Amino acid sequence: MAAELTAHHRRLAQQKREAITSAATELFLDRGYDGTSLARIAEAAGVSKSTLFKQFPTKAALFEAIVTESWQRDVGNTAARPQAGDLRSGLRAIGHRYADLIGQPRMTGLFRIVIAELPRFPELGRMQFQLGKLPYFASVQHYLESEHEAGNADVPNAESAANQFLGMIANYVLWPRMLLTGWNPAASDIDSAVEEAVQTMLARYTPGPPTWPGAGMSTRPRNA
């Protein structure tokens, strides 16, 4: 019985936490980070101020939680990380999970908050980069390093390769959404964007002779 009560209390606490972070994200977008008080967030989330302050004693701590929870759900899921052995399937799995992650309205909202408030609150940008984007990119970098070490890929600079791969996907899925309110590509179009990114990575990093157009061609003049 005690275990059931403990599990019930944990579920309630998690539900309240999600209500708080969701309400805070909406208010930060609507009123700005500086113009939103913790008391207003508690009211919008339907929780008491003491409940909110117990979980998030400061507004910075609340924003930190929003960043961490938005980015690191996938990073912390070790079962979802592909194992070295099949570069194509591994990249596809990473690419589709990344497209799903950055295609969420929550992620778009997070980027908009940071961009809008960066001049006055540069610490928000540091949180977004150090707690969110950097750990996520590092997880992809580590995967590419494992494929390189196993001989399944020729990736001399895994950090650069991770930026290339995720950048190709973000350039279609995320950044147009930041500027175009009606940007909502079909699932099939997102799948195509991921597949194009995978094919580009395979052409560049599959071991053996280069396969991309023009690769291996001499740059010396013919009569040199």
TrEMBL record:
**Lineage top rank: taxon:** Bacteria
- Gene3D superfamilies given in the database record: Homeodomain-like (1.10.10.60), Tetracycline Repressor, domain 2 (1.10.357.10)
Q: Which Pfam families match?
A: TetR_C_7, TetR_N
Keywords associated with the record: DNA-binding
Pinpoint the HTH tetR-type domain residues. 14-74
The residues that make up the annotated DNA-binding region are: 37-56
Statement: the UniProt record of this protein carries the keyword DNA-binding? yes
What InterPro entries does this protein map onto? Homeodomain-like_sf (IPR009057), HTH-type_TetR-like_transc_reg (IPR050109), HTH_TetR (IPR001647), Tet_transcr_reg_TetR-rel_C_sf (IPR036271), TetR_C_Proteobacteria (IPR039536)
Enumerate the PANTHER family for this protein. HTH-TYPE TRANSCRIPTIONAL DUAL REGULATOR CECR (PTHR30055:SF146), HTH-TYPE TRANSCRIPTIONAL REGULATOR RUTR (PTHR30055)
Q: What is this protein called?
A: TetR/AcrR family transcriptional regulator
Q: Which organism is it from?
A: Streptomyces argenteolus
